[in-house]
Specification:
The complex is a heterodimer of chains A (289) and B (825). Chain A contains eleven helices and 14 strands. Chain A has helices at residues 14-22, 34-39, 76-81, 83-88, 90-97, 102-107, 110-116, 122-129, 223-232, 236-249, 260-280; strands at residues 7-9, 26-28, 47-50, 60-61, 67-71, 133-138, 141-146, 151-153, 156-157, 164-171, 180-184, 194-199, 209-213, 220-221. In chain A, a hairpin with a 2-residue loop joins strand 8 and strand 9 (156-157). The radius of gyration of chain A is 18 Å and the shape is globular. Chain B has three domains: 32-139 and 212-260 and 267-299, Alpha-Beta Complex (Aldehyde Oxidoreductase, domain 3), CATH 3.90.1170; 305-478 and 644-800, Aldehyde oxidase/xanthine dehydrogenase, molybdopterin binding domain (Aldehyde Oxidoreductase, domain 4); 486-637, 2-Layer Sandwich (Aldehyde Oxidoreductase, domain 4), CATH 3.30.365.10. Chain B is built from 21 helices and 28 strands. In chain B, strand 9 (214-220) and strand 10 (225-230) form a beta hairpin. Chain B starts with a helix and ends with a helix. In chain B, 57% of the residues are buried. The chains are: A alpha+beta (289), B alpha+beta (825). The A-B interface holds A 1-5, 36, 39-41, 101, 184, 186-191, 193, 255-259, 262, 265-266, 269-270, 289 and B 122-123, 126-127, 292-295, 669, 671-674, 711-712, 714, 716, 724-727, 729-730, 732, 734-735, 737-738, 794-796, 799.
């Protein structure tokens, strides 16, 4: 339970962090995923790049009325407590609040949660439903990647070598303030078996946006479910058909807490409940699923 | 009551705060891992990645030459320096494998130690492990026991012939065979009006103490002495065991414990902890090993439960139980006798399956089969849970079959007269089973819960209520084992009036320091704050047996009480000389000795003590007394323990038995399969209570552990035998937010066979929770007709139960329709 030896740097700026990452470094954000893996020697980076001194990566900005910019190093508890998040995208606050326990939320970061690419990550599911976009920088420039495209496989992000996730842009409007995050976990504060986020459509034209975690090998936008619901209404049969469509196209996730069939069933139930809640109230922060 | 009167009240029975808590909650306890001697080396252990393999070759040469490495040793090299691990008990029908602290030529579970390193720090030690080369010949692992292939009636034929054998020298993979029968079982089944059958199964989960194993070994090569600071429940037995393994006289071995961060049965044997000791002997330097959580999950004594009953219960139509038959099969991992001590739990289970009910015809067969998993550890409950899980599920099933109220069925069969010898031999010395059941029913307000359930069902919500009886045998004293049946104490009243109480019992969180101080304080008339309880130093305290089988309030307390009573007698004698009042007319309390009825004639205990020792001293204060100082030692044995088999081959290894009843309210979400345990009611009777606060928290703690085990804790391996639940992220323990509200009530029926009327306790919650949760969930799912007989109650399993029940109803209704059609024709 002791890491193998590694080099360690703690750069003060994004530019210097990107240079260290270009040298083959591994980013250390809140340490909630990397540190346990280091201690198990399951990962053995030669160089660890500690991002905790880079102030420009922290905090939540609302400069643009149309979107919210959240620094990648913003802690979960900060997101959970932020008044702008609470009013503009309450489902994101709820997802943050239900991440781990107080200690985990005080250290863990939204960017780390996305980059770890665990298919059950709360923040990823919420961000995908919100249509959030990740800003990814490297020494020679930057690119923007929809969060839905940030995941290559279970615990494999789409970041390329030398890249650093610096910000998440969350578009406002289009029902974002009426979105719902729901999860089902064996016990509170635990990793969920399945989580879903539902953002209702804005008006007649657009239907709801739905994301689901813990169903497939990556967090995903449930486009087949969205389509089925648009065409047939939010019936359990339509949702179920949409889920089957997703599973026909993608490999399902399974672990000792639930096989894919159970996860499919659970996802259907949670999406149904999420759509109902989103339709029912302007704002839902109910604790129970 | 005046303050002075308060001071005169006995301390036993009072809910005083625990003396140990300030130290423990402020992080100033002293656990083995808190100690690092000057110049200590750090041990790391190389573990087998295969669950079943032959060791072809181990080469530690490269590791030995790495920076900071002082010693590296393979199993084959180590064998020259130590004896095999000794079996912890040797009962008929049990076989013990011959194994060493480091595997020599074969590994039988993933994580088995094969080599070890001592280096100047733990990082370098772990680096060096990677330089050790091991060549394995991988063998097919045995990961399950085949219920269908067990030969229940054969004698010695392979129980599961298709499986590869784990131990070359064994005939088969059966580690325990135990059969017992009493009464005319065949005839009773023949005469029965109803017979119910059930397959009741519990999965593998384990004790997960906050503190895993930790050892600091200091061998002094000049004096050939060994001091071992270790997290153990049984320090004296560890001294005996270490002396034997390393060929040292016991006089040269000292074991120290200090604080131990939880045990629950898991810290009752020597296993991996002998490795750092060997390294200390080989290097002549202190060696420290504090294992990681992953090591605990991989290679700790984490096999527990993992059993299945196939049972039948015969009844008359009025609900009278006539006979019981059970076949109990367990997956005992690689071993439950040497590397861990769980195996005898199966025999304890078989002994107590009849439980608190009058059952006079009983036939049980037990088989424990080895598999390529870690050792079968003891865990809170130790078979009493295995018993309760079966008999209580059978009671519910029988009630349903007979159309009787399940509580009424229980009342009809519960023991009401004591002492009562049950068919397997134990004598239930006193109890209040019916009273506990009545009280739990009252506390729950069962009619109101039934109304709430009905309203909820009308709204599509599924509430369920379960009620069970529990019996809590305590203070097990096992013959032919290191878990024998005595306890020791020394009580010393010092000249300044303070008291040292030495106990052979080992605190592992159960409040020994406070409750023993309460008992001793009453005997010598002082406050518990003046009593310092000491333990866990084999050079300081008399040979005692430590903590297992909830024996403290039966054995440990009785020994302390016996010694303190003798000190109190001498104290009164000395005071009678000083006050010129006969001892019979004196009383003790509040730090003084007083003449009864004349409070003016009094003297401080400290004053009497000072006079007894020095001013003028023992010849004047205790003339003629054989041991004229205020000190006494005692060894307590319980008269009800019987190790001589009677004509039925029966022993009595548990002398005291608590009574109880437990109720539970759950809500099941039939869409997600989630179970919300809304409330648990627990009525408990373990005789006279020393400190009700400590007792309550023992009951709650044991309930929470069984709640976790029944609902979501599970140890999972893949088909290749690789552990999937390696961290506490994967192996979920209950957290503060998920633990249900548990309301505890007490009845106090004193035990007639202990000096204070106390009975051992601490496992009760773990005995009843499993059955009551299954019962309540089954009740919630009654509209579907699902039977709930297997754990864990994970959400996928709940949905599966509902699905199966629906399918079987659909089949039945199709069959009925088809039948009706045929009738028409």
């Amino acid at each position: 339970m002791r890491p193998a030896s590694f080099e360690y740097v703690r750069p003060p700026s994004t530019a210097e962090a990107c240079r260290a990452l270009a040298d083959g470094g591994t980013a250390l954000a809140g340490g909630q995923s990397l540190l346990p893996l280091l201690k198990l020697r399951a990962v053995r980076p030669a160089l660890v790049v500690d991002l905790n001194r880079i102030t420009e990566l922290q905090g939540i900005g609302n400069g643009e009325a149309t979107e919210l910019a959240i620094g990648a190093m913003t802690r979960h508890q900060h997101v959970a407590d932020d008044p702008v998040v609470a009013s503009a995208v309450p489902l994101l606050a709820e997802a943050a609040r239900r991440t781990g326990d107080m200690q985990v939320r005080a250290r863990g970061t939204i960017g780390g949660n996305v980059c770890f690419a665990d298919p059950r990550a709360n923040m990823s599911t919420a961000l995908v439903a919100l249509g959030a976009v990740a800003v990814v920088e490297r020494t020679a420039g930057s690119r923007q990647v929809p969060v839905a495209e940030m995941f290559s496989d279970t615990r494999v992000s789409a970041l390329r070598p030398g890249e650093l996730l610096t910000r998440l842009h969350v578009p406002l409007g289009a029902g974002a303030d009426r979105g719902v995050y729901l999860e089902f976990a064996p016990q509170p504060n635990g990793v969920p078996i399945v989580n879903v986020a539902v953002v209702p459509g804005d008006g007649e034209l657009a239907g709801p946006r739905i994301a689901v975690g813990g169903l497939l090998r990556t967090t995903c936008r449930a486009t087949q479910v969205e389509k089925a619901v648009r065409l047939e209404g939010a019936t359990s049969a339509a949702i179920r058909r949409g889920i089957e469509g997703l599973l026909a196209d993608h490999e399902g996730y399974a672990d000792p807490r639930g096989d894919t069939a159970y996860r499919a069933r659970l996802a259907s139930v949670l999406i149904g409940r999420g759509l109902e809640r989103a339709a029912r109230g302007p704002r839902t922060t109910e604790r129970e699923v | 009551m005046t303050v002075d009167e308060m001071r005169q009240q006995p301390w036993v029975g009072r809910r005083i705060p625990r003396q140990e808590d300030n130290r423990l909650v402020t992080g100033t306890g002293r656990f083995a891992d808190d100690v690092t001697p000057q110049g200590a080396l750090h041990c790391a252990i190389l573990r087998s990645p295969h669950p079943h393999a032959r060791i072809v070759r181990v080469d530690v040469a490269r590791a030995r030459s790495m920076p900071g490495v002082v010693a590296a040793v393979s199993g084959a090299e180590a064998r020259e320096h130590w004896a095999p691990l000794p079996p912890n008990f040797a009962l008929p029908g049990i076989v013990a494998p011959r194994v060493y602290g480091l595997a020599v030529d074969k590994v039988v579970y993933e994580g088995e130690p094969v080599a070890a390193v001592a280096a100047t720090d733990r990082y370098l030690a772990e680096d060096a492990l990677e330089a050790i080369e091991v060549e394995y010949e991988v063998l097919e692992p045995v990961m399950d026991v085949d219920e269908g292939a067990v030969d229940w009636y054969g004698d010695g034929s392979p129980a599961s012939p298709a499986s590869p054998r784990l131990y070359d020298e064994w005939d088969d993979n059966v580690q325990v065979r135990y059969d017992f029968a009493y009464g005319d079982v065949e005839r009773s089944f023949g005469e029965a009006d109803a017979v119910v059958e059930a397959r009741v199964a519990v999965h593998r989960y384990a004790a997960v103490p906050l503190e895993p194993r930790a050892v600091v070994a200091e061998y002094d090569p000049d004096g050939r002495t060994l001091t071992v600071r270790v997290a153990t429940q049984v320090p004296h037995q560890m001294r005996t065991t270490y002396a034997r393994i390393f060929g040292l006289p016991e006089t040269s071995v000292r074991v120290l414990t200090g604080d131990v961060g939880g045990g629950y049965g898991s810290k009752g044997q020597a296993d991996g902890d002998v490795v750092p000791i060997l390294l200390s002997i080989l290097t002549g330097r202190p060696v420290k090993w504090a294992e990681t959580r992953e090591e605990w999950m991989l290679a700790g004594p984490v096999g527990s439960r993992g059993y299945v009953h196939h049972a039948e219960l015969a009844l008359r139509s009025d609900g009278t139980v006539l006979a019981l038959r059970d076949r109990l099969l367990a997956d005992v991992g690689c071993d439950g006798v040497v590397r861990a001590i769980g195996l005898a739990a199966l025999i304890v289970g078989a002994t107590y399956i009849p439980g608190p009910y009058r059952i006079d015809a009983y036939d049980v067969r037990v088989r424990g089969l080895v598999t390529n998993k870690p050792a079968y550890g003891a865990y809170r409950g130790y078979g009493k849970d295995i018993a309760n899980q079966l008999i209580e599920r059978l009671m519910d099933k029988a009630a349903a079959a007979l159309g009787m109220d399940p509580l009424e069925l229980r009342r009809r069969n519960l023991l009401t007269e004591f002492p009562h010898e049950i068919c397997t031999g134990p004598i239930i010395e006193s109890g209040s089973f019916v009273e506990c059941l009545d009280l739990v029913q009252e506390k729950m307000d069962l009619p109101a819960l039934r109304r709430e359930q009905e309203r909820a069902r009308a709204n599509g919500r599924f509430l369920g209520v379960g009620v069970v009886s529990t019996m809590e045998p305590s203070a097990g004293a096992i013959p032919m084992s290191v878990f024998s049946g005595f306890e020791s104490a020394t009580v010393r009243l010092h000249p300044d009036g303070t008291v040292t109480a030495l106990t052979g019992l080992q605190p592992i969180g159960q409040g020994v320091q406070t409750s023993y101080a309460q008992v001793v304080a009453d005997c010598v008339g002082v406050s518990p704050a003046d009593v310092r309880v000491r333990w866990g130093d084999t050079d300081a305290v008399p040979y005692g047996l430590g903590a297992y089988a909830s024996r403290g309030a039966t054995f440990g307390v009785a020994a302390a009480h016996q010694a303190a009573t003798e000190v109190g007698r001498k104290l009164l004698l000395a005071a009678s000389v000083a006050l010129e009042v006969t001892p019979d007319d004196l009383e003790l309390g509040g730090g003084t000795v007083r003449a009864k009825g004349s409070p003016g004639t009094a003297m401080d205990v400290a004053d009497v003590a000072q006079r007894t020792y020095f001013q003028p001293g023992p010849y004047a204060m205790l003339p003629g007394e054989k041991e004229p100082v205020l000190e006494a030692s005692a060894v307590y044995t319980n008269p009800e323990v019987n190790w001589l088999p009677d004509e039925h081959g029966r022993l009595r290894i548990y002398p005291t038995h608590g009574s109880g009843a437990m109720g539970c309210l759950v809500e099941v979400d039939v869409e997600t399969g989630g179970v919300d345990v809304r409330k648990v009611w627990y009525v408990h009777d373990s005789g006279r209570l020393i400190n009700p606060g400590i007792v309550e928290n023992q009951l709650i703690g044991s309930s929470v552990q069984a709640f976790g085990g029944t609902m979501f804790e599970q140890i999972v391996y893949d088909d290749a035998g690789t552990l999937l639940t390696r961290t506490l992220g994967d192996y979920q323990l209950p957290n503060a937010a998920s633990v249900p509200d548990i309301e505890v009530s007490h009845i106090e029926t004193p035990s007639p066979i202990t000096p204070l009327g106390t009975k051992g306790l601490g496992e009760g919650g773990h005995i009843g929770i499993g059955a009551v949760l299954l019962s309540a969930v089954e009740d919630a799912l009654r509209p579907f007709g699902a039977e709930v007989l297997e754990t864990p109650l994970t959400p996928p399993r709940i949905l599966q139960l509902i699905d199966r029940a629906r399918e079987s109803r659909a089949r039945e209704s199709r069959a009925q329709t088809a039948g009706a059609v045929r009738d028409d024709v």
